[in-house]
Amino acid sequence: MRKVYEEYGENDTDIMALFAESLMMLAPWNLWTKPPDIKPAIKETEEIVATLEKGLNIDPVHPGLAHFYIHAIEHSPTPEKALLTSDLLRNRYPDQGHLLHMPSHIYIWVGQYKEAIDANKAAIASDKAYKANQEAEIEMYDLYRMHTYHFAVWASMFDGQYTTAMEYAREVEKQLGVDVVTSTLNGVSFGPIWLEAFGSLPWHVLVRFGKWQEIINRPMDKDKDIYAGTTAVAYYARAIAFAVLGKAKEADAERTNFYTALKNKALKNRVLFNNVMHNPVRKNGILDVAEAVLNGEVEYHKGNFDEAFKWLHMAVERDINLIYDEPRGWMTPARHVLGALLLEHKEAAKAEEVYREDLKQYKNNLWSLLGLYQSLKEQKKNEKEAEEVLCLFKKASARCDNSVNFGASCLCATKLCN
Predict the structure, then answer these.
(1) What DSSP assignment string belongs to 174-216?
(2) Would you give the distance in Å from CA 379 to the centre of its chain?
(3) Domain ranges of the chain
(4) What is the pTM of this model?
């Protein structure tokens, strides 16, 4: 492709887009190193960005160039460079759901959570119209439709919008019947590997917003082999709910169920987009983060604080070391749990450090703004900064659901929420 680009691509935006994409495929989702020291991960990264920017200067709304530029920049130290492209792309192709969704990959990293939600709402509406005209019951694009729902849920969780998050999570759940989850595509086990894990979204939403009794009352999927990933997440959620409510015996029973679910052979090879659900050797899967959070929560609420914080620090490490993805493989940052429980445990200085790190990654997110304010206030430290952070929190939380008590960055910290 380089030869074609060098010979014919000087002013041809289609060739520029295909050349840049060919370079991106050398290291998919790995163009940049992980935070905090983000820099090019491969020697072609800067060439990719330069090629795309050259093309966008010729045609700012070229669908391929704009699409690839957002992906090339989203994980960079400067995602805001793609804001203009995102804004231009947002309403340009109303019949292309995936392109309507793409700006959210930038909005989420610059703290524009409302815009991220709105972009995905538009994409979902477009996809529904597309799906209504398709004869095929299962197709590869179904994965991308689930991805858009997933993103809408994730952004809504950051924005404090429980109702919106749950609405889209339930829509996903309704679409993942047994026929879909067990489907094959071109001879590949498509539904089990690629789609089933999206069914776990409602459980993540309920944990994020502290709906403990709703978690306990919620029915689980009957077939634990068909819904292997979702079942494990359900046990994770139930264990935490019982722990927070002070029911240690029940929490331990659900923890045992969780570990049993991890041993389910049906779980093998299942993924949630870029990340595996579970890797029993490397412990670098989504459910491996869940394991650490679950154990941290259960031990904390038993009063075993040293053991709890060991697990919660491990949860943060597992979370930040997941393969890069948007939405993140772990939907509620583990730092939000660690920070809240440190703060409740009267370790405000440590909590402050946790929240400052989280705000570097998730700009102006209401959960860590609240935690940072509480940490500064508890220490009676830098009152001017504390008031500035409180103002930012009030602005960031303006769209929050009134039904949720935003008393801490994790509603598991019940003393902070009372």
Answers:
(1) HH--HHHHT--BTTB-HIIIIIGGGGGHHHHHHHHTT-HHHHH
(2) 31
(3) 333-417
(4) 0.97
